[in-house]
């Protein structure tokens, strides 16, 4: 997600990429290292963390959040934007507001929820911590990984005859959100913020926009048809147009930034 954000950055705010290993155009810094040599900034976008499938310790997401806050303080940032996830929420069939119950059904969501709890104990001094509960980022989740590899995509079909629905956002729109929040007055930013396009998207529509074929299967027990976010709070801070949820827009931005041919 961080690489896509870097590739899609076209905002007025200057982006200063930081990586743990040498990479083109990036400062090199990692947890425990001195921030000497890094410039002062208005905001830190902490788009790092341990994710499922890496074989790492998910509990390290708390320690990484603390590291991001410490880095923000050292660089005199006003705000630190932490990459949380829609996965922190308990299952629901409706659009999830920031006040919806947390109760993640998987270890990753629980780890991100623990991260948010840890950030809530921070003293009022230092950078303001904002947990971005990000939906599905086009190009950084399983559907788009499958689109890059296969002509036929298997989706679950539920009792109503329809498939999964999710809240997506294109990397370029995520960049706009990050840059806008970076220059907001810290005092108006909430401790948690849902981040996605204004409307949910049917995964089958994304598959169709990519010119791929859907292969349907009966949804297994426990599968979730809807995982969708209310973005009213985000829209008040950084309005995104309805086109941000267009399947063709999501696919086009993924192809452009990831270099995937049509």
Automatic annotation (TrEMBL):
Q: Where is the NAD-dependent epimerase/dehydratase domain?
A: 61-141
Read off the InterPro entries from this record: Epimerase_deHydtase, NAD(P)-bd_dom_sf
Pfam family for this entry, one: Epimerase
Recorded protein name is NAD-dependent epimerase/dehydratase domain-containing protein
What organism, scientifically named, is this protein from? Roseivivax halodurans JCM 10272
